[in-house]
Amino acid sequence: MADYPQHLVHPHRLFDGTEVVIRPIRPEDAAIEQEFVRGLSDDSRYNRFMGQLRELAPRKLQYMTTIDYDQHMALIATVQRDGQEIEIGVARYVVTPGSDSCEFAIAVDDSWQGTGVAGILMLELIETARSKGLKAMAGFVLASNHKMLKFCRQLGFEFHRDMGEGDTINVVKVL
């Protein structure tokens, strides 16, 4: 496994002054990643995973937390609560094999939406992708996920609708 990219650990302050740490995920984060997914509302889980699930299956949880920090990068946002580190958001990309582009996904705990966490996560993820030499970032967003579409528009993503893919919109940002 690749060395942990310590240089990507950054503290941030949200609009309300709350300190949040943005850092790459680690295999030992499996428990807080699972709690994060369990804590999402049904709508947020559906929008992120485009399907119904309550928690991540063991194999999926391992995939989400054991990454190479090169072809697969995941940044989590955490806060301290009662001496415990709590995950409140995650943004990731996976490089499209044989290309200089990647596919991204992001999720933020419902109670933290609108606080600036998503923007910080995405800007850090975009910068990390650029630093790896990637030229484009793409994602698939449910057409019904208006908050995510607005967010992508604010970040400068272009929208493409593929024929036959009526329920999703392909969003693309040149890096």
What is the highest CATH level, the class? Alpha Beta
Weakly predicted, low-confidence segments: none
The percent of residues in helical segments reads 25-40%
The strands making up the biggest β-sheet line up spatially as: 1-2-3-4-5-6-8-7
**How large is the radius of gyration?**
15 Å
Overall structural domain count? 1
SS content category? alpha+beta
Q: Architecture, CATH level 2?
A: 3-Layer(aba) Sandwich
CATH-defined superfamily: Gcn5-related N-acetyltransferase (GNAT)
- Major sheet, described briefly? 8 strands, mixed
Instruction: Give the SSE order as H and E letters.
Output: EEHHHEEEHEHEE
CATH fold annotation: Aminopeptidase
Distance between the termini: 27 Å
What is the tally of helical segments?
5
Number of strands: 8
**Strand proportion:** 25-35%
* Averaged pLDDT: 91
Coarse shape: globular
Q: If you had to describe this structure to a student in words, what would you say it looks like?
A:
With 175 residues, the protein is of the alpha+beta class. It has a single domain, classed as 3-Layer(aba) Sandwich (Aminopeptidase). It has helices at 30-39, 42-49, 58-65, 117-131, 146-154, and strands spanning 10-13, 19-24, 72-81, 84-95, 101-108, 136-142, 158-160, 168-174. The chain has an eight-stranded mixed β-sheet, with helices on both faces. A hairpin with a 2-residue loop joins strand 3 (72-81) and strand 4 (84-95).
Task: Explain the layout of strands and helices.
Blueprint: E1 10-13, E2 19-24, H1 30-39, H2 42-49, H3 58-65, E3 72-81, E4 84-95, E5 101-108, H4 117-131, E6 136-142, H5 146-154, E7 158-160, E8 168-174
Parallel strand pairs: 5-6
Antiparallel strand pairs: 1-2, 2-3, 3-4, 4-5, 6-8, 7-8
